[in-house]
């Protein structure tokens, strides 16, 4: 696979919980995507600065910098105009879902996740 096509299938998984990160990475990898991981917002932003990704699975509730704050920084940076950012969250109430979409997330992946749900958001 060439570098340009592999960067189109790169997913950054951001979650402060190591078990949640490992599960998401296992599902994303099983679906044929290359993954990297970040444990918090600053780490995620540093990885995005360093390497190209096509999708970010971004936890909402993290200490220090929330997923919504990370999203705001991503959306404010023109380099990331085509980047899909998916809220990776346990916030499942309809009003919470709508608030996240209104904030600029492209889709939502509700915890606990399943392989089918991960496949749906990655291929949307």
From TrEMBL:
PROSITE patterns the UniProt entry points to: RESPONSE_REGULATORY (PS50110)
Stored InterPro entries: CheY-like_superfamily, Sig_transdc_resp-reg_receiver
Domain Response regulatory: 10-124
Superkingdom of this protein's organism: Bacteria
UniProtKB keywords: Phosphoprotein, Two-component regulatory system
PTM-bearing positions, type 4-aspartylphosphate: 59
PANTHER family documented for this protein: HYBRID SIGNAL TRANSDUCTION HISTIDINE KINASE J
Protein name: Response regulator
Organism: Zoogloea oryzae
